[in-house]
Specification:
The complex is a heterodimer of chains A (300) and B (740). Chain A is α/β, with parallel strands linked by helices. Chain A has 2 domains: 201 residues, 3-Layer(aba) Sandwich (Rossmann fold), CATH 3.40.50.300; 85 residues, 2-Layer Sandwich (Alpha-Beta Plaits), CATH 3.30.70. Chain A is built from 11 helices and 14 strands. In chain A, strands 6-7-8-3-9-10 form a 6-stranded mixed beta sheet, sandwiched between helices. The two termini of chain A are 30 Å apart. Chain B has 4 domains: 245 residues, no CATH class; 114 residues, no CATH class; 129 residues, no CATH class; 104 residues, no CATH class. Helix content of chain B is 53%, strand content 13%. Chain B is of the alpha+beta class. The longest helix of chain B has 33 residues. In chain B, the strands form 4 sheets. A 6-stranded antiparallel beta sheet of chain B has the order 13-14-12-16-17-15. A 5-stranded antiparallel beta sheet of chain B has the order 6-5-7-11-10, with helices on one face. Chain B has a 4-stranded antiparallel beta sheet with strand order 2-1-3-4. In chain B, helix 8 runs parallel beside helix 12. The chains are: A alpha/beta (300), B alpha+beta (740). Chain A: It comes from [Ruminococcus] torques CAG:61. Chain A: GO terms for molecular function: ATP binding; ATP hydrolysis activity. Chain A: This is ABC transporter domain-containing protein. Chain A: Keywords: ATP-binding, Nucleotide-binding, Transport.
């Protein structure tokens, strides 16, 4: 388990992490989302022991991570711009990772590079950006560490590869003690993949919740109530995150479970009532707007 | 966790990733050491006996004593190894990769450090062995010489480490490879820059400074800065025997390494890409670097353009500090709009330079008028400028350490009064700088003949020595020396003949009015007797006469000396030619002292200027006893031609009119040959007139006016002297004589 205790980091005049406190449980995919410059990379670099927090500390399984090789041996950090040695090919990088990570799964790596059609003897510098990311992900995945920190690693992957990588991650979670932490500024990318989400904005962590919990607690209701008096009574009886009106059709984003909301609207004799699922993006826009943050403009 | 075996593998991997550097260092060292040695020895001589003469300097092929290229190469390799090993700290993706590994910072440091070290050490050691083998093939090598070569290799490694560690230390303070490189240059010379700056400013601003050779700041500057120490270690033969230098290098190496490790442990990873690593350092470094650099630049530019006075130092310093502050800010931010971002530190730096220059310009410290209290002075010595050419001491050529130039006397009051008059002269504007300056009114008034320049050394009771340089009255100085020389001990200390060990004198030469030296054919006993007679005369002579009379002859002594091989590292007769240290005939010819190595491994050198005056009766009678008579007049039949150079004063006073009128062949060159007008000075009354005399009867008239032109005991430095340039028939020699 990763515990972040009032992590604070300032670069020159930029407050990259503002007293972040959170817990990332083991055995699930944790998504770290936020706009560009929200502090995702800084947080990941602090978790992996690259950066030393100005205040607070990162505990991994109860131990501080900074300058602690035994803890760092459980972490593999994949930077948004992966580093490969000049003129190195995949085999050379694999050998270096094998030196640094004793649990490196060479067999798996070789089979995966084959499945991904990556030539092990071709210089990595001649690879495309997406191929380099694939190599980076495979190296990280096969390093055998408990925690894999991916900093916008999925950006630039084509949908097929992205899906394949997601499957690989899921398989690894099933096979061993594995906790990937993936940062991205694209909510759609993480929606069908993460178990738990953390939202960073301007160095602050707005919320951390499991995705199921979020999806169950917020839903979208479309209804038509012909009697204006009843409609008013209904609206005042529920907690609205967001409301849109099109003629007599009301589209409401509401906090609460599907069944509770549907039974509540039925008592006001609606002409039409239907509960629709919300995308992760809609949930976060609604939640953050409710929290006073107008993040619609910068989520993409 | 990474095992110990993996560390070795990681070091090996690091070396592999820097394979280009391994190849570069291997090839260049191979070419610069064994190949160069082979070519050099082959091209010099194939005679084994001649080659054996190289044994003394063979180890120079290992450290650069015999090749400046090797010194440069070692320096460049140290730079390249240092920068390539630690540049990962300056690139975010590389730093993320390495700092993300399960390694402590000091472990990561050790991997990069050791890999870099091996990149140099392995080829260097291999090339050393190959160079020794070349020596063995050429028949030069002995076991002890091989040992010397390995010791020299040790100094080569230390020199490499000096630059390597400086580079790493700079890397720990910076966040970009460019600033790491610049930082290495700054750290490499900074202590020297600061330590030599104050003496330089004193010289530039103060009137009474006296430069002591190898003063404490000067010595420290050689040992505290990595770059000067690096060069010193490599350019000297057998430098491993210089314990002080090796110790200084070791201390610097250890300090730089320890500081680098400590800094790396706290190195902020987020500073990759920034000019400097630590938040508080940019303004501090800007102030520390810009102040001495600005003043140094101004002094350098002033000396290049030859500007006089101090106003240009002030103007150039202020200009340089402003530009430097802007330049440093640009290096920090790489944005012209940010030049004023660190304005506070810029103001501090500019203010400091302004205050510093004001202190020197207005002499707030009272340097020029400072005189230690008489009761605090234990001894005083004075050294007129003329002594440098009038006295030649054997210790100057035999001692490894510099001889104390001053003869210190317990008679404090004699020289103290003279120093006081020197300070009074400073207050009147009569200083050493103005004495010889043609622009001062003093000289045009012809007062300069009354003054001489003399340095003073005040040895305080505490042991500290204070040095000053004053203009003092000629007569007062002569009187002071007359008093001081009343003590036999002082006189013996002052005159070089008492410093000569007579048994080591291998020959004595005599010069008289004909100047061409004649070696006296004397036995060892006769030489000793002659020198004893000379000593007696020197002890008895009246010092006032040395100031007023012209000597009638001069002895030169050739002295044997066994050099201390281990410590004799200074080679004044060597010079760098095309990057190679070679015997330089030009230097040897120009140097007044000859030195050679004879069959018995003695070094010989000569000292001259042992003048003989008319009243040196013991010497003259001893010479006569052995059949030598000093000639006082030049015979007219020996002269081919004479050219007279008569000063403007003499012409104005018609001093030589009678003599010139009596000549049958006098020809005024100035009037007859416009090209000769170059001899004229701009001030008409100072114009020198030149006359050529060719008639033998005129030579007879002139002969009694010709005197030797020796160095003066106290040189007035005046310009109103009259000279004659005499060309002899024999060998067509030309010598200059005083016309009296």
């Amino acid at each position: 388990m990763i515990e972040l205790k009032t992590l604070d980091k300032t670069f020159q005049m930029i407050h990259a992490s503002d007293h972040i406190t959170a817990t990332i449980p083991d055995g699930m995919v944790f998504g770290l989302i936020g706009s560009n410059g929200a502090g995702k990379s800084t947080l990941l670099r602090m978790i992996s022991g690259i950066l030393k927090p100005d205040e607070g500390e990162v505990l991994i399984d109860g131990e501080s991570v900074f300058e602690n090789p035994s803890v760092k041996s459980q972490i593999c950090f994949l930077s948004d711009t992966p580093y490969f040695f000049p003129n190195a090919d995949i085999q050379q990088m694999r050998n270096y990772y094998m030196l640094c990570y004793p649990s490196f799964n060479r067999k798996l790596f070789d089979s995966l590079t084959d499945r991904f059609n990556l030539d092990p003897k071709r210089k990595i510098s001649s690879f495309s950006k997406g191929m380099k990311k694939q190599v980076s992900i495979l190296l990280g995945l096969c390093s055998g560490t408990k925690y894999l920190l991916c900093d916008e690693t999925f950006d630039g992957l084509d949908p097929v590869v992205r899906q394949a990588v997601k499957s690989l991650f899921a398989a690894e979670i099933l096979n061993r003690d594995f906790t990937p932490i993936i940062s991205s500024h694209n909510l759609r990318e993480l929606e069908d993949f993460c178990d738990s989400i953390g939202l960073l904005h301007q160095g602050q962590l707005l919320l951390t919740q499991s995705l199921d919990q979020i999806k169950c607690s917020v839903c979208k209701l479309q209804c038509v109530i012909s009697d204006p008096h009843k409609e008013q009574q209904f609206l005042s009886s529920i907690k609205i995150l967001k409301m849109e009106r099109s003629g007599s059709l009301l589209t409401l984003t509401l906090r609460g479970s599907h069944s509770d909301i549907l039974s509540a609207v039925q008592t006001y004799d609606p002409v039409f009532a239907e509960v629709l699922p919300l995308t992760l993006e809609e949930i976060f826009i609604s939640e953050t707007e409710a929290a006073g943050y107008d993040i619609k403009d910068f989520l993409y | 966790m990474i095992s110990k075996i993996s560390y070795i593998k990681l070091i090996r991997e690091d070396i592999r990733h820097r394979g280009w550097l391994a190849a570069l260092s291997g090839v260049l060292l191979f070419l610069s050491m064994p190949v160069y040695t082979l070519i050099y020895l082959d091209s010099y001589s194939e005679d084994p006996e001649v080659l054996k003469e190289f044994a003394d300097t063979f180890s120079g092929f290992i450290n650069g004593y015999n090749s400046a290229f090797l010194i440069i190469l070692i320096g460049i390799l140290a730079f390249a190894v240092g920068i390539s090993g630690f540049q990962f700290m300056h690139k975010k993706e590389k730093l993320d990769f390495y700092h993300g590994l399960a390694l402590k910072r000091h472990q990561l440091f050790a991997i990069s450090y050791l890999a870099g070290l091996f990149l140099f050490l392995i080829p260097y050691i291999v090339c050393t062995v190959l160079t020794i083998l070349v020596g063995a093939v050429k028949g030069i090598m002995t076991l002890s010489l091989a040992g010397e070569c390995f010791l020299t290799m040790g100094t080569g490694i230390l020199a490499f480490l000096l630059i390597y560690h400086t580079c790493i230390f700079a890397g720990m303070l910076t966040g970009r490879s460019v600033t790491m490189f610049l930082g290495t240059l700054v750290i490499g010379v900074y202590p020297s820059l600061v330590l030599t700056l104050l003496p330089s400013l004193r010289d530039a601003f103060f009137q009474t400074t006296y430069n002591v050779h190898d003063s404490i700041p000067e010595k420290l500057s050689e040992y505290l800065s990595p770059f000067p120490l690096f060069i010193r270690m490599l350019e000297q033969n057998n430098s491993y025997s210089n314990v002080f230098m090796i110790t200084a290098a070791l201390v610097l190496i250890v300090l730089l390494l320890a500081a680098s490790i400590m800094l790396y442990r706290i190195y902020p990873s987020e500073s990759a890409g920034n000019a400097l690593a630590f938040k508080f350092t940019p303004p501090v470094f800007k102030v520390l670097i810009s102040i001495p650099t600005a003043v140094f630049i101004s002094l350098l530019v002033k000396s290049f353009i030859g500007a006089s006075g101090t106003k240009w130092i002030i103007i150039l310093s202020m200009l340089a500090i402003v530009l430097l502050c802007g330049l440093i800010e640009f290096i920090y931010w790489q944005d012209l709009k940010m030049l004023l971002k660190g304005w506070r530190s810029s103001v501090i730096a500019i203010g400091f330079v302004a205050v510093l220059l004001a202190v020197f310009q207005f002499d707030f410290t009272g340097y020029d008028t400072y005189l230690p209290k008489e009761k605090k002075i234990a001894r005083i010595g004075t050294l007129p400028d003329s002594f440098a050419s009038y006295f030649w001491y054997p210790e100057d050529y035999t001692s490894e350490d510099d001889r104390e130039s001053f003869v210190l006397s317990d008679d404090v009051d004699v020289l103290y009064n003279l120093a006081q008059s020197g300070i009074e002269n400073v207050k009147k504007g009569i200083t050493p700088n103005t004495l010889y300056s043609s622009q001062t009114s003093m000289q045009t008034d012809k007062d300069s003949d009354n003054y001489i320049c003399a340095a003073f050394c005040f040895e305080l009771e505490s042991g500290k020595k204070v040095y000053r340089n004053y203009c003092v009255s000629y007569n007062e100085t002569l009187e002071a020396f007359t008093k001081l020389c009343q003590k036999e001990d002082y006189r013996k200390e002052l005159f070089p003949i008492f410093h000569v060990e007579k048994e080591n004198v291998s020959s004595v030469s005599l010069q008289d009015i004909y100047i061409t030296p004649e070696e006296l054919l004397l036995t060892a006993e006769q030489r000793t007797e002659l020198l004893s007679a000379y000593e007696k005369d020197v002890l008895n002579t009246d010092i006032r006469k040395l100031g007023s009379e012209v000597p009638i002859g001069e002895f030169s002594l050739t002295i044997r000396h066994v050099p201390n091989k281990e410590t004799n590292t200074n080679q004044p007769f060597h010079s760098w030619v095309n990057g190679t240290r070679e015997w330089n005939a030009a230097v040897n010819t120009a140097f007044p002292v000859t030195s050679s190595e004879d069959e018995t491994n003695y070094k010989t050198f000569s000292i001259g200027s042992l003048y003989i005056y008319e009243d040196y009766e013991n010497t003259l009678s001893c010479l006569e006893k052995y059949g030598y008579k000093i000639k006082r007049l030049i015979r007219a039949e020996d002269i081919d031609s004479v050219t007279l150079y008569l000063s403007g004063d003499s012409m104005k006073n018609k001093k030589w009119n009678d003599l010139l009128a009596s000549f049958s062949s006098a020809k005024d060159e100035n009037n007859s040959d416009p090209d000769k007008a170059a001899y004229e000075q701009s001030d008409e009354k100072d114009a020198t007139s030149m006359f050529t005399i060719t008639a033998p009867e005129d030579f007879r008239l002139l002969a009694e006016h010709l005197y030797l032109n020796p160095s003066d005991f106290l040189d007035r430095g005046g310009t109103s002297r009259d000279y004659a340039e005499v060309t002899f028939k024999k060998e067509n020699n030309t010598f200059t004589y005083l016309l009296k």
